[in-house]
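Entry type: protein chain
Record version: 2
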Amino acid sequence: MNISEKTLQLAIEIQQIPAPTFQEQRRAEFIAKRFNELNLIDIEIDNVGNVYARRPGAGEEHPVILSAHSDTVFPMATDLSVRRAPGRIHAPGIGDNSLGVAGLFGLLWQLDEQQIVLSDDLWLVVNVGEEGLGDLNGMRAVVDRFGDAPRAYLVLEGMALGQVYHRGLGVQRYRVTAQTQGGHSWADYGKPSAIHELAALIARLTKLQLPKRPRTTFNVGVISGGTSINTIAAQASFELDLRSEDPAALQSLIRSAETLFEQANRPGVQIQAEIIGQRPAGEISQNHSLAKLASKALRTQGVQPQFNIGSTDANIPLSRGLPCVCIGLTRGGGAHTLDEYIDTTPLPLGLEQLFALVTTIFKRL
């Protein structure tokens, strides 16, 4: 079995282990066991749930950190059935990010097969908390641990082959809660309803004028609350996601949203806005040596690189001024849906890209 097929097989094994954000332990234990089978050293699971392993190099001063997140957006009870079709694998979470995690092993197998000794240590990290409300807590712990010692941080995603994410998209998230006295829908009609108040607030948010350039967005992704159909809701909440590729534009949107929150307070209605997520922005130039190496690794495989911005684990090192890019292994679609799939044909190119980039970083950075 070639390395691509072994990587796909491992990706399916990983995908079959449920790993919602904050519930990645079973998957972490599986990965730690597989790392141990490859005779890596310093294998550990830290206090937030990240799995670390070190492939020793000739030195220890300036390692490369290669990471992939283990968590998924799917609840624990999700049907994780796999369906294979010619050139394609369908399965929830297969590309985001089971294949990314399996790609760490694909690289290790290739390095071992060619008996390559790198000039410094290569650290493999399978981190938690990239999705949803994880708030990149896993990658924060990784960067806190290694700081500015590494030559580079590389973040691996299963899909997005051809993309070089060298810019981190700024994100701020809120849980907005309304509280009222509530009451009976008939007997107390006219009293404020927490649900009605939030609906009106969301309507006002939709009327905000957002710039198309720099691209700036908002989304209410979750609404919850109320007691019954014939009860005036005493409490309700929604979760709000604000994003912009420009930090100044994001701050402007934050100020506008917070002003609306404040204005929604009135007698009998209390609005509270809690920040539940902050993904800091950051970037390296397209002319940075790491970005150039990532671009060259793709071109060598006949893949045209696209420099891009995204909200990934790369946000954390980039926001701290550290060299980092996020790259993909293959193409696919339906991410974060039950119809998620990956294309298997491009995977050998993605693995060769990863191998070329890692080995070149140790020679050039």
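Comment: The two ends are 34 Å apart (CA to CA).
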